[in-house]
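Q: What would this chain look like folded?
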Amino acid sequence: MYSATEGSAYGFAQYLTGPDGGMPKALELAERIAANAPLTNFAVLQALPMIAEANPQTGLLMESLMATVAQSDKEAKRRIRAFLDRKTAKVKPS
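A: My prediction, written as structure tokens:
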């Protein structure tokens, strides 16, 4: 058995909260995940575990294919465009 602090240090957990802070943190993370493009969540849940278990060459190929598929998604394109438009608006021509 490990304490929460030890478990976090060993990589068993990504977040530490105070007493009674687990559920609010879980809900916050769930809201952020739900805001992802659906294809992104599919890639994280389905493809990443397979990539991690594949040999390096196969893993790199799968990663490249999933990146291409995810970037071709209409929602992903919309989000990238919105991100780039915000960045462009902040840059002032000299």
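The mean pLDDT is 87.
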